[in-house]
Write a structure and sequence with these properties.
The complex is a heterodimer of chains A (about 350) and B (about 325).
Chain A lengths: L22 E3 H15 L3 E5 L15 H5 L4 E2 L5 H13 L3 E6 L9 H14 L8 E7 L14 H5 L5 E3 L4 H14 L2 E7 L6 E3 L13 E4 L4 E5 L3 H13 L5 E5 L2 E3 L3 H11 L2 E8 L4 H12 L9 E5 L8 H7 L3 H11 L3
Parallel strand pairs in A: 2-3, 2-4, 4-5, 5-7, 6-7, 10-11, 10-13, 13-14
Antiparallel strand pairs in A: 1-8, 6-12, 9-11
Helix pairs in contact in A: 1-6, 3-4, 7-11, 8-9
Chain B lengths: L7 H4 L4 H25 L15 H8 L7 E3 L5 H7 L3 H8 L33 H14 L6 E6 L6 H13 L3 E7 L2 E2 L2 E2 H4 L15 E6 L3 H16 L5 E6 L20 H8 L3 H11 L5 H23 L16
Parallel strand pairs in B: 1-2, 2-3, 3-7, 6-7
Antiparallel strand pairs in B: 4-5
The chains are: A alpha/beta (about 350), B alpha/beta (about 325).
C-alpha cells in the first residue's frame, strides 16, 4: 500500500446535508477508514479492549476480526501501559498498529509509554527510528459517567512534542483523518467524542485523507472567530444560528488537528474579524484552548480589537449528577454569551 | 584447586572456536568500558554513563545465539548489549561525545543507543521502559511470519515495575518469541535488593504466569550461553517466551567510573569478593588452562581491541558537534 498515493481532499463539506454525497453515521465512517486500511495494508492491525466483542467499540470494529482475521483485529488485556509499548515495538518492527481505547481516561494508564517513549523515540535516536502508530479514544459524557469516565485530556497531550493530536468533529473528517493518521508514520493520538457518534453526515466513498495540520472553516462570518474543538463544533454552529437572528455573524473554525495546529487559518480569520473566542471541551485552565488563545495573542496581537474569550468545562472533575453537569459543561449558550459580549451586547 | 566459577560442565558442549569468540566479546566490552571510565574524567563526554563492567558474560552468552535480524532491546546500562549484538563502536563512542556522527546523532547520549543495521531499534532509560516495546517487536515478528526473536535486557529493579508483569502476561497469551534477560546485580542505584523485594528469587517472580524461569550464574559465560541457547531456540520454534535471571555484579557505581564504595552503600569487601568472580579473568584462566587460548592469543586480541578503541575515540573527538540551530530536527518522520 503506497500511502503517498492516497487522494487528499480539502473538504469544504459542512454539517449541512444534501450535497450529493451519501450520508452515513460517524461510527460507520470510522469503520470505513479501518476497513480501507486493513484491506490495503498488511502492516495495519487493530487492537483494543473489546474490538472483537458484539459491541465492537461503538459498532466501529464489530466483526472486523471475522473478515481480516483475529491476528489482525484482536482483544487486549487491561494492560494499557504494556500494550502501548507493544504498539511502539510493533511499529519499530514495521507494523502500523491502531490501538483503540473505549475512553481517553485509560490513556493515563499508559502515560509513560505515550510520553516518555512513543513521542520521543524518533527524536532521541536522531530520526533513525520513527514510530508509525495510532491511538484512538472517544470522550464520554453524560448519564452520571462522573470524573473518571468523561475526561477530555487533549490539553495535556497537546503539550507533548513528537505526538500528533487529532480531534475530528464530523463523520467525513473522522474517516479522512484516521486514514491520514495511519499513513502519517508518526505517533498520532485521535480523540473523538461519543456525542459526535450520534450524528450522520456526508462521507465520500472510497479512499481519501484529510491532511493533518489543516483546519477548516465550518461557517463563514465577519464578526467573531470562534475556534471550536470536538463536540463544541456543533455547539458553535448552533450558536451561530442563534446569533444570526440578532445580527451577529460568527466564523466557526474547526482546527481538526490540534498538533500541529493550523495557525495560519486561525490568524487569517482573526485578521478579518478582530475577535476570538475559543470553545473547548476540556478544562479551561492550561487546556488546548489556552494554547490557541496564547498563540493568537502572541502572533496576532495587532489583529485583535477585543480580549480573547475562552470557553471550557469548569475546572473541577466531572460531577456525576445531571443537575451538576449543567454547571460543568460548556454549551452553545456560552458561545452566544461570549460573542454577544464581544460585540458590545 | 577450587575456582570461583566452574565452566567445565557447560563448556563441554561448546566448540573451542565459540569459546574463544565468547571470550573475545567479553574482553572487547571490558576494554571499551574501562577506557570510557578512564576518559570520562576528561569531562568531554557530556552524558551519564552506566558501565557494565562485571556483567559482560550475560551480553556475550546471549548474543552469541542471535542473528543480525533478531531484535535486541536494552536499557541505560546498554553498552555491552549493544557491542555484543554488533552495534558500531565508533558510532557509540561518538554518541558519548555528543557528536553528529553518533549513533543517535548526538540527540540521545549514552542511555539511548541505536543500531538498526543489527536490529537494535533503540534503548530506554526509563527502568523497564523497553520491556513492552521488545515484546511488541516479537509480536510483529509473528505477524510477519518470520522466525525472528526479540531479546529484552532488564535489571533486577525493572522487575518491580508493573509493566513487566503486563508484558510477560501478554507474551504468554500470544506465545511470543521474546526472551527476557534480567541482569540481577542486586542494586538499584544505592538500594539493595532486600529493600525492594520480599524474596530474592526473581526467576520465580512470574511463575503465576507460567513463563519458564531460569536462574543463571550471570558471571559464567558458558552457563549463560547454554541457558540462552535453549530459551532462544524455544522462542524461535514457536515455544513462547522465557525469563532468565542472571545473577551478577556491577564493579562500578550506578553511574560513572568509581566503585561506589566511597558513596557508602556497599563495602570494599563485597566489591573485592565479586572481583574474584570476574567473568572475564576467570574464563580467560579456564581457557588458558585447557589450552584453548594462549598468552599470545590474548595479547593479540588486546592489541586489536585497543587499536579499534583508540580509533573510535579519535573518530569521535574529531567529529563535528551538532549545530544549535538544528535542535528542532528529527522530531517526526
Amino acid at each position: 500500500m503506497d500511502w503517498s498515493k492516497t487522494l487528499l481532499h480539502e473538504h469544504e463539506l459542512s454539517h449541512e446535508q444534501g450535497s450529493g454525497t451519501r450520508v452515513i453515521s460517524h461510527g460507520a465512517a470510522v469503520r470505513e477508514a479501518l476497513e480501507l486500511a486493513l484491506s490495503r495494508d498488511n502492516r495495519v492491525f487493530v487492537m483494543g479492549q473489546g474490538v472483537d466483542d458484539p459491541l465492537g467499540m461503538f459498532g466501529i470494529t464489530a466483526d472486523l476480526h471475522k473478515k481480516y482475521g483475529s491476528d489482525r483485529v484482536f482483544d487486549t488485556p487491561l494492560s494499557e501501559a504494556a500494550l502501548t509499548g507493544v504498539s511502539i515495538g510493533a511499529a519499530l518492527a514495521g507494523m502500523r498498529p491502531v490501538y483503540m481505547h473505549n475512553r481517553p481516561d485509560f490513556l493515563y494508564c499508559a502515560m509513560d509509554q505515550i510520553v516518555n517513549h512513543a513521542s520521543k523515540w524518533c527524536y532521541m535516536f536522531g530520526g533513525h527510528a520513527p514510530v508509525p502508530m495510532v491511538m484512538w479514544a472517544a470522550i464520554g459524557r453524560g448519564w452520571g459517567g462522573a470524573a473518571q469516565h468523561t475526561q477530555a485530556p487533549h490539553g495535556m497531550f497537546m503539550h507533548v512534542p513528537g505526538l500528533r493530536l487529532v480531534m475530528p468533529s464530523s463523520p467525513s473528517d473522522a474517516k479522512g483523518l484516521l486514514i491520514a493518521s495511519i499513513s502519517d508514520g508518526n505517533p498520532v493520538l485521535i480523540i473523538e467524542h461519543r456525542w459526535l457518534f450520534k450524528q450522520t453526515g456526508p462521507v465520500p466513498e472510497g479512499l481519501y485523507a484529510v491532511p493533518l495540520g489543516k483546519g477548516i472553516i465550518r461557517r463563514s462570518g465577519k464578526d467573531v472567530t470562534v475556534v471550536a474543538i470536538s463536540q463544541m463544533v456543533p455547539e458553535a454552529l448552533r450558536a451561530a444560528e442563534q446569533l444570526q437572528t440578532s445580527g451577529i455573524e460568527i466564523e466557526v473554525i474547526d482546527p481538526r488537528t490540534l498538533r500541529p495546529l493550523d495557525e495560519d487559518l486561525i490568524l487569517e480569520s482573526v485578521g478579518r474579524t478582530g475577535r476570538l473566542v475559543v470553545a473547548d471541551v476540556g478544562w479551561k485552565t492550561a487546556g488546548a484552548g489556552a494554547e490557541i488563545a496564547a498563540m493568537v495573542a502572541e502572533k496576532g496581537f495587532e489583529l485583535l480589537k477585543a480580549p480573547v474569550g475562552r470557553i471550557g468545562s469548569a475546572d473541577v472533575p466531572t460531577p456525576a449528577g445531571y443537575t451538576l453537569e449543567a454547571g460543568f459543561y460548556p454549551s452553545k449558550d456560552d458561545v452566544v454569551r461570549h460573542c454577544q459580549k464581544l460585540m458590545g451586547g | 584447586m577450587t575456582r570461583p566459577i566452574s565452566f567445565d560442565k557447560c563448556a563441554a558442549g561448546i566448540p573451542p572456536s565459540t569459546l574463544r569468540s565468547l571470550y573475545q566479546t567479553m574482553l572487547r566490552i571490558r576494554r571499551v568500558e574501562v577506557r570510557i571510565g578512564e576518559r570520562y574524567k576528561e569531562d568531554e563526554m557530556h552524558t551519564p554513563i552506566h558501565l557494565c563492567i562485571g556483567q559482560e558474560a550475560i551480553s556475550a552468552g546471549v548474543c552469541a545465539h542471535l542473528r543480525r535480524d533478531d531484535y535486541l532491546f536494552s536499557n541505560h546500562r546498554g553498552h555491552g548489549h549493544y557491542l555484543a549484538k554488533g552495534g558500531g563502536l565508533k558510532e557509540m563512542i561518538a554518541e558519548l561525545y555528543n557528536r553528529e556522527t553518533g549513533c543517535s546523532r548526538g540527540r540521545g547520549g549514552s542511555m539511548h543507543l541505536i543500531d538498526t543495521s543489527v536490529s537494535i531499534p533503540g534503548t530506554s532509560s526509563i527502568v523497564a521502559g523497553s520491556v513492552p516495546i521488545g515484546t511488541g517487536a516479537a509480536l510483529a515478528a509473528v505477524m510477519q511470519k518470520t522466525d525472528k526473536v526479540s531479546v529484552v535486557f532488564l535489571g533486577d529493579a525493572a522487575t518491580e515495575e508493573g509493566v513487566v508483569q503486563e508484558s510477560i502476561a501478554f507474551a504468554m497469551l500470544k506465545k511470543l518469541p521474546v526472551i527476557y534477560v534480567c541482569e540481577n546485580n542486586s542494586y538499584a542505584v544505592c538500594s539493595p535488593l532486600s529493600n525492594r523485594q520480599a524474596t530474592n528469587d526473581i526467576y520465580r517472580r512470574f511463575e503465576g504466569l507460567s513463563v519458564s524461569g531460569h536462574l543463571v550464574d550471570g558471571n559464567n559465560v558458558t552457563e549463560v550461553y547454554c541457558v540462552a541457547k535453549e530459551a532462544i531456540e524455544k522462542a524461535r520454534s514457536g515455544g513462547g517466551p522465557s525469563f532468565m535471571e542472571c545473577r551478577t555484579y556491577r564493579m562500578t557505581d550506578h553511574h560513572g567510573g568509581t566503585s561506589g564504595v566511597e558513596v557508602g552503600y556497599r563495602t570494599q569487601a563485597e566489591v573485592d569478593e565479586w572481583a574474584g568472580k570476574c567473568p572475564v579473568s576467570n574464563f580467560e584462566r579456564f581457557l588458558v588452562e585447557r589450552s584453548i587460548l594462549s598468552a599470545g592469543d590474548i595479547a593479540e586480541y588486546k592489541s586489536v581491541i585497543d587499536r579499534e578503541v583508540a580509533e573510535a575515540f579519535e573518530f569521535a573527538r574529531s567529529s563535528p558537534l551538532p549545530d544549535a540551530n538544528d535542535v528542532g530536527k528529527y522530531l517526526y518522520a
